[in-house]
Amino acid sequence: MKILITSDWYYPVINGVVRSILNLKEYLENQGHDVKVLTLSNSTESYRKDNIYYIGSLGAGKIYPEARISATLRNKYIIELKKWKPDIIHSQCEFSTFMMAVRIAKKASCPLIHTYHTIYEDYTHYFSPSKKVGKKVISVFSKAIADRTDFLIAPSIKTEKILERYTIEKEKIVVIPTGIHMPDKLLDKKNCRKIHNIDESAKVILYLGRLAEEKNIEELIRYYQKLDIKNLEFILVGGGPYLNNLKSYAKQFDKKIDFKGMVKSEEVNEYYRMADLFVSASSSETQGLTYYEALSNGIAAICRKDLCLKEVIIDGFNGYQYENFNEFEKYVKEVLEDEDLNKKLSKNAREYALEKFSVKSFGNKCEKLYEKALEKEK
C-alpha cells in the first residue's frame, strides 16, 4: 500500500504523537509498504527530505506551546503528493495538516483515517476563559473532524467514550492502543543508580514525562512532602512549558525534588530501571505512553485513577490506581516496604506490557483497519 501519514508535529520534536508516528512508520515500512510523511516545517520554508515533506509554517505558541500553523493548501509538495495518489491517508493532528490530508484524500479518492491523540477538554485553559464554552467548542470541532474521516482511531477506552459523547457514530470509532518499543533486556538496577549518582539504599519514586500544567504534577509534589518514608527520593525527569513553574512551586516545601530536566533518549530506560515506583497524577491522558514504558521496564506504577488506565494499570497486578492521598500513601508504603509484592508487580508489569503494548501489535491493528477501509471503498 501507498500510505501517507500527516501530522503537525514530527521529528526532531519528541512527544507522544511523534513517537507513535515513528513507531507506526517503522512497522509499515518493515511490512513492505511505501510510506510518506507530510508535516510542518519549523520555518516558513517548505522542503522535502527523503520521504518526509515539510510545509512552511508559522509559530502559534500563544494558542498552545510548540504549536505551528500553515494555511497553505496549494504548495508544490502537496500537489506532488496528490499526483502520487496514496491508497490510505492516516492523519495524526486536527489542524493544518488535517486540512491538507482532506484535500489530498479527495483528490486521490482514498480513505482518510484519523487518530484522536489529544483530549482537548483538558487544554481549554490555553484558548478559552470559560471551561464550559471551551468544551462545547471542542465537541463541535471534534464532530466536524470525524465527519471528514472514514474511521477514527481512539488510543484508549477513555477516548472512545469521550468521542461517543460528541455524538460521533460508534461504528466509526476503533480502539487501538499505541505501541512502543520494549527494551529487549532489563538494565541492571544497581548499575543504573551508579551511573546517575543515586544511592543504592534510597527508595526512589519517579515521574518521567512532559512537564505541563494539565499533568497535575503539583499534586505529586504535595503528596511527596506528606509521605513519612525513610530514604525516600522523588525524581522528576522531563522538560516542558511548566518546568520553571514547578521548580518555583517546589521551593515552598522542605523536602527537595530532584529535577533532572530533559534527558537523552538512550538514558530513559536507565531512569525507569533505577526507580522503585513510577507515579503520575495526570487525568489528561488519552493513553499515556510513559505508563507503557514504565511497565515494559518492569516498574510498578501508582497513578491517579482515570478511564485511560482501564486495562493498563490493574490494582494489585502491575500497580495501583488511587483517588486521594490516603490511598496514594497506602499503596506507596505497601510496594516499597513489601519486597515480595514489589517483585510480583514488577514481573507482571513487564509481561503484560510485552503482550499488550508492543509496536507489532499496534502496527498490525492499524494495517488491518487500512484494509477494512479499502474494502469499504469498493
Automatic annotation (TrEMBL):
Source species, domain of life: Bacteria
Keywords: Transferase
GO MF term set: hexosyltransferase activity
InterPro entries: Glyco_trans_1, Glyco_trans_4-like_N, Glycosyltransferase_grp1
Domain Glycosyltransferase subfamily 4-like N-terminal, residue spans: 14-180
Key word Transferase present: yes
Annotated ranges, domain Glycosyl transferase family: 189-351
Name used for this protein in its record: Glycosyltransferase family 4 protein
